[in-house]
Design brief:
The protein contains six helices and no strands. It is mostly helical and about 140 residues long. It has two domains: about 1-20 and about 30-50; about 55-110, Helicase, Ruva Protein, domain 3 (Orthogonal Bundle). α2 crosses α4. It is elongated, with a radius of gyration of 27 Å. About 5% of the residues are buried. The mean pLDDT is about 80. One of its GO terms (cellular component) is nucleus.
C-alpha cells in the first residue's frame, strides 16, 4: 500500500516537472531543464536507496548526511554501484552500513592531503649581530 502511494506521488511529481518544462512561460530555459534533470536524478537515487536500505539504515544515513554530507554521498554512491552490479542480495542493515561507513571514512582519510610544517630553530634566525645592525640605523 505504501509503495503504491509512493509511486503515485512520484508519477505526479514527474508529470508536474514535465509540465513546467514544456510550458512557454517557464522563463528559465536551460536552467529549469537542468534543475528538472537534477531533481529527477535525486528522486531516482532516493527511490533506489529506499529499496536497498532497511528503515534503520536509511535513518542512520540521513543523520550522517546532516553531519557530513560528503561522506553520506560517498556511501550512497558505493551502495548504488553495488546494487546496480547485482552484488546486493538483501537489504543493507544498519550494521552493514556501519561497516561500509568505516571503510569509506578510512578511504577519505587516506586521500586527505597531509600538511607538515617544519620550523627553523634558533628563534627565527635573529642573532646579536642582526640586532646591532638594526639599532645602528636608528
Amino acid at each position: 500500500m505504501a509503495d503504491a502511494d509512493l509511486e503515485e506521488i512520484r508519477r505526479a511529481r514527474l508529470q508536474q516537472l514535465r509540465q513546467q518544462q514544456d510550458s512557454p512561460g517557464a522563463g528559465g530555459g536551460e536552467g529549469s531543464q537542468e534543475d528538472a534533470k537534477r531533481q529527477a536524478e535525486a528522486q531516482a537515487r532516493s527511490s533506489l536507496l529506499s529499496q536497498i536500505l532497511t528503515p534503520s539504515a536509511a535513518d542512520r544515513l540521513g543523520r550522517i548526511r546532516l553531519v557530513k554530507e560528503s561522506r553520506a554521498t560517498a556511501v550512497e554512491n558505493h551502495l548504488i554501484t553495488l546494487a546496480r552490479s547485482g552484488q546486493l542480495r538483501t537489504k543493507v542493515t544498519e550494521e552493514q552500513l556501519k561497516d561500509l561507513l568505516a571503510s569509506v571514512a578510512e578511504q577519505q582519510e587516506e586521500q586527505a592531503a597531509k600538511i607538515t610544517i617544519t620550523r627553523k630553530g634558533g628563534g627565527g634566525g635573529w642573532d646579536s649581530d642582526d640586532l646591532d645592525d638594526l639599532l645602528e640605523g636608528v
